[in-house]
Design a protein that fits this description.
The chain has 6 helices and 25 strands. By secondary structure, it is mainly beta. The protein has 3 domains: 119 residues, no CATH class; 92 residues, Sandwich (Immunoglobulin-like), CATH 2.60.40.10; 140 residues, Immunoglobulin-like (Sandwich).
Length: 448
């Protein structure tokens, strides 16, 4: 055992710490007290140390802690301090004291080389505490693989769990995306629960496969990888229709059921401190100490998406009437979308829409719509300008062979992102086909 109570006040505090914090000594204490060692060091218990001085006073050999000496000095009217002050009022109480508050005892910031008062001894001196930090449960990261569109603002989220995170021990999540690190600090959650952590970022212009590395630090650490597929939906527009196209075997297909998710909910844990004040000392001499703890409120957020589409005959169609037209002419389309969110910073605008056509059985070819106007709460999208249009119109040409009846366009409205995933809507609208473009052309001899 290192020299704890020094006659010259030069005890080696680092040696004392090392001794009482050694595995050997703690195992010895557990054995002598009959306590299970693993239970002792689990984090629920602490060891309180009080140095004892052995000395003769008034012809009697006695042994006291610093607190006992101060109490005895008050009983004998200060005589112990008068005769033994350098030991009982200095070397013994100052041999151990706290550098950080614990167990209701304050840290000592007073003198360390002269006699101290009995009240200071009783409240703050002559003690040490060995703390056993509970080994934090390693955090876990739950990830999801994503498919994104090029040049789109998205949200990437992970779920962090394991142990507990509060303002005293916060978790930090870092997303490493395409050479940039996005840091999410102060991620909190109670013991046994979890919390989503997410970042907003914009996908690259070129299609590619990406990996996003995620690491968590705080009470423990963890790593994970997210796999992302970045696709370009603007790579497969319909071919140029021509006047002699035929498809005599065409049979209409039903509109496919594409994924729809029009609302999303997510939560954020909000910690707050529950005060619990405890009085330490007697009725006249003592102090209040807050023995409180962290509680958690669960704040709930949501977002919703609504959208409409309308197809109409192109203005350059000379014989269209209302929602009826001849095949071979073009159609225009407008998609409007509205996004409502109780946490706007965690919700992107609606950014993309893709239209599929009955002549291709709602597959094979499609059109990615142009973003005409985009804001956080509303979006308007239309066909891109058609390279085969004489007037450079935002149009889609119906095939001249399309049979009479309903012509239904299917549009998948996508890329409104939230921490709980992507919102999307599957829309349709129809026109009536009656006749074809050749009906508007008549060649005959001039009647002279």
């Amino acid at each position: 055992m290192p020299h704890i109570i020094s006659t010259n006040g030069r005890n080696n505090i680092e040696a004392i710490k090392k001794y009482f914090c050694s595995e050997y000594v703690v195992k010895f204490i557990a054995e002598e007290t009959g306590m299970d060692y693993d239970t002792l060091i689990s984090g629920e218990y602490k060891i309180l140390l009080e140095p004892i001085a052995y000395y003769k006073f008034e012809g009697v050999m006695i042994a006291t802690t610093a607190t006992e000496a101060a109490l005895y000095d008050e009983v004998v009217g200060g005589q112990l301090r008068y005769w033994m002050g350098s030991l009982t009022a200095k070397n013994l109480p100052l041999s151990m004291f706290l550098e950080t508050p614990d167990l209701g005892y304050p840290a000592w910031s007073g003198p360390t080389n002269k006699n101290v008062s009995n009240s200071d001894i009783k409240s703050s001196l002559g003690l040490g505490i060995v703390r056993f930090e509970e080994q934090p449960e390693e955090p876990e990261i739950s990830t999801y693989d994503y498919e994104y569109r090029t040049n789109t603002e998205v949200i990437t989220a992970v779920e962090v769990s394991g142990g507990q995170s509060d303002p005293d021990d916060p978790v930090t999540v870092r997303f490493h995306i395409d050479g940039t690190t996005y840091t999410v600090s102060n991620v909190y959650y109670p013991d046994g629960d979890s919390q989503l952590a997410w970042v907003r970022w914009t996908t690259p212009d070129e299609p590619q496969d990406m990996t996003i590395d995620v690491d968590v630090s705080g009470p423990g650490s963890a790593q994970a990888t997210i796999h992302c597929k970045i696709v370009d939906l603007d790579e497969n527009p319909p071919p140029n229709p021509v006047a002699d196209d035929r498809n005599d075997s065409f049979t209409p297909s039903p509109v496919p059921d594409r994924p729809e998710k029009t609302s999303a909910q997510w939560t954020i844990w909000d910690p707050w401190w529950q005060e619990y004040w405890v009085w330490h000392g007697d009725d006249e001499d003592g102090y209040w100490c807050d023995h409180g703890w962290w509680e958690f409120d669960l704040d709930r957020y949501s977002a919703s998406l609504s959208a409409d589409m309308e197809i109409t005959p192109d203005e350059k169609n000379p014989t269209a009437s209302g929602n009826s037209m001849k095949s071979g002419y073009g159609v225009n389309q407008v998609v409007t979308a509205r996004v409502s969110s109780s946490q706007r910073s965690a919700t992107t605008a609606l950014q993309n829409a893709v239209s599929y056509f009955p002549e291709f059985n709602y597959e094979s070819f499609w059109r990615l719509l142009d973003r005409i106007s985009i804001s956080s709460s509303s979006s308007r999208l239309e066909f891109q300008k058609n390279e085969y249009s004489t007037y450079n119109r935002r149009t889609h040409f119906t095939p001249i062979w399309y049979p009479d009846g309903s012509y239904t366009v299917n549009t998948w409205v996508i890329d409104c992102w939230t921490p709980a995933g992507m919102l999307s809507v599957n829309l349709t609208d129809s026109l009536n086909i009656r006749g074809n473009l050749w009906d508007d052309w008549h060649i005959a001899p001039l009647d002279l």
